[in-house]
Design brief:
Elements lengths: L16 H14 L14 H4 L27 H13 L6 H14 L1 H6 L9 H23 L9 H4 L3 H9 L8 H11 L12 H9 L23 H9 L9 E2 L35 H6 L3 E4 L9 E3 L2 E4 L2 E3 L3 H14 L6 H12 L3 H9 L3 E3 L4 H11 L7 E2 L2 H26 L3 H28 L3
Parallel strand pairs: 2-4, 5-6
Antiparallel strand pairs: 1-7, 3-4
Helix pairs in contact: 3-6, 4-6, 4-9, 6-9, 6-10, 10-11, 13-14, 14-16, 15-16
InterPro entries: DUF247_pln
Pfam families: DUF247
Keywords: Membrane, Transmembrane, Transmembrane helix
Length: 465
């Protein structure tokens, strides 16, 4: 009809109320409720914005988060091969039954497994079970071959490549690359403990810690903290964290409030509430100077053998620190342990405190070189500047709730202040006792200079023809 106005371009088709309510109801049902059972999560974007590569797998995906990534697809063949080898150790008539038992277990615990993850998994029950079976059997076979050299196949690229084991250690300890540990334990019971090699195999936690030990900066003879690995853990990262990164409360650990402490170097780092919920006067955390500055006041750095990285000690001007081996995976390992501490409110910030202290000690490559000379840092990368940048960047976007080394820093600062004050007092008492001492020093220096000049001129005049 001429002159009729056309409907506006932006007009939208009205959705029937019943259809809209049905769609909304489905979204509500599909949403994940807030749960304290979440154990595996994505690394927060603010941490990824600093260094995303540190949280992403390089060669292998484990679990549902990265299984479709292009860069990990070449490893799919090796995962299937390892899973097949593990199943083949069961009698030929039972290998199919073993696989069926694994699948049945995963289907029955599908809801429990999904509850471990902090986001919805877009895989159906069968797809998720397949991912977990292949990934779990690969991990188990990897640990078994690492423990028993006789079970390794000739020309296995995983063990013949010099870099592969270190890269796998790195990838298997990524926060986003985890599967529930109870899944690994049950499939370990079904496949290994019922096989011919079962009686000779230690428990799964021991196999796992043996595999990771060389990447965790711990002494080969040291045992896990607490001496036991029988307690329940959530995943492989949690196992290693509890075993080697949760020291007994030996040092002075002071609680912090929930205020965001975005950067260590900020001068207004504060503590929050004190005992019984009473608000204490805000007091800044005790921090220390760099290694170079501490050295100028006479503090000496010493390497000390300890069960874990956190056993630092300061006594009689000697700062004793366990050695840290810095290799290609150190950055990723420490960042993921800190991310786990950020995610898990039940975890104390031991690793975060350690990195925080090292960040204070290391400001430039000269600080790194001082610690290298003392044996505190064993730099396998060769570049002191890289190690300096590593620690200077690692604390960015980290929220600090507590500082494990507060008491230790108080001791260091007390010693430094005392040495400086003693030096000043000694100088004043000897050279600046009173104003006449200053005048005497000045006059003596002037007389000495004048006498020297006069002597020189006398010699020159004497030698003239």
């Amino acid at each position: 009809m001429a002159g009729a106005e056309a409907p506006p371009v932006s007009a939208q088709v009205e959705i029937p109320v019943e259809t809209w309510l049905t769609s909304l109801d489905q979204k509500l049902q599909d949403s994940l409720p807030p749960s304290s059972n979440w154990r595996i999560c994505r690394v927060p974007r603010k941490l990824q914005s600093v260094k995303k590569d540190a949280y992403s797998p390089q060669v292998i995906s484990i679990g549902p988060f990265h299984h479709a990534a292009d860069n990990v697809k070449p490893m799919a063949h090796h995962k299937l091969h390892y899973a097949t080898c593990l199943l083949s150790r069961t009698p030929a008539t039972k290998s199919t039954a073993t696989l069926a038992a694994c699948a049945d277990f995963l289907r029955r615990f599908d809801a429990t497994i999904r509850a471990y993850y902090a986001e919805k998994i877009d895989l159906n029950q069968t797809q998720l079970a397949e991912v977990l079976i292949v990934d779990s059997l690969f991990i188990i076979e990897l640990f078994v071959r690492y423990f028993n050299v006789d079970l390794r196949l000739q020309h296995d690229p995983i063990f013949t490549s010099s870099w592969m084991i270190l890269t796998l250690q790195r990838d298997l300890l990524l926060l986003e690359n985890q599967i529930p540990f109870f899944v690994l334990e049950m499939l370990f019971m079904i496949t290994v403990k019922r096989s011919a090699i079962g009686p000779s195999m230690p428990p799964l936690p021991e196999l796992a810690l043996l595999f990771f030990k060389s990447a965790l900066n711990v002494d080969e003879k040291s045992s896990p903290i607490g001496g036991s690995t029988t307690w329940s853990c959530h995943h492989l990262l949690d196992l290693t964290y509890r075993s080697y990164f949760c020291p007994s409360p030996r040092l002075n650990l002071r609680e912090e409030s929930n205020r965001d402490l975005e950067r260590l170097a900020a001068p207004d780092l504060v503590r929050g509430r004190g005992e019984r919920g009473k608000k204490k006067k805000e007091k800044p955390w005790v921090l220390i100077q760099s290694a170079k500055e501490l050295k100028t006041v006479g503090i000496k750095f010493r390497k000390v053998t300890a069960k874990h990285l956190f056993e630092m000690e300061f006594k009689d001007g000697k700062f004793r620190i366990p050695p840290l081996t810095v290799h290609d995976s150190t950055d990723s390992l420490l960042r993921n342990l800190m991310a786990y501490e950020q995610f898990s409110h039940a975890s104390r910030q031991f690793v975060t405190s350690y990195v925080m202290l090292m960040d204070r000690l290391i400001d430039t490559k000269e600080d790194v070189q001082i610690l290298e000379k003392a044996g505190v840092i064993e730099n396998e990368l060769g570049d002191s500047g890289y190690v300096s940048n590593l620690f200077n960047e690692m604390c960015k976007q980290i929220v600090f709730r507590e500082f494990y080394y507060d008491g230790l820093c108080e001791q260091v600062n007390g010693y430094s202040k005392g040495r400086w004050q003693k030096s000043k007092a000694h100088f004043k008492s000897v050279y600046l006792k009173n104003i006449w001492t200053i005048v005497s020093l000045f006059v003596a220096a002037w007389v000495l200079a004048a006498t020297t000049i006069q002597t020189v001129y006398s010699i020159l005049d004497y030698n003239k023809p």
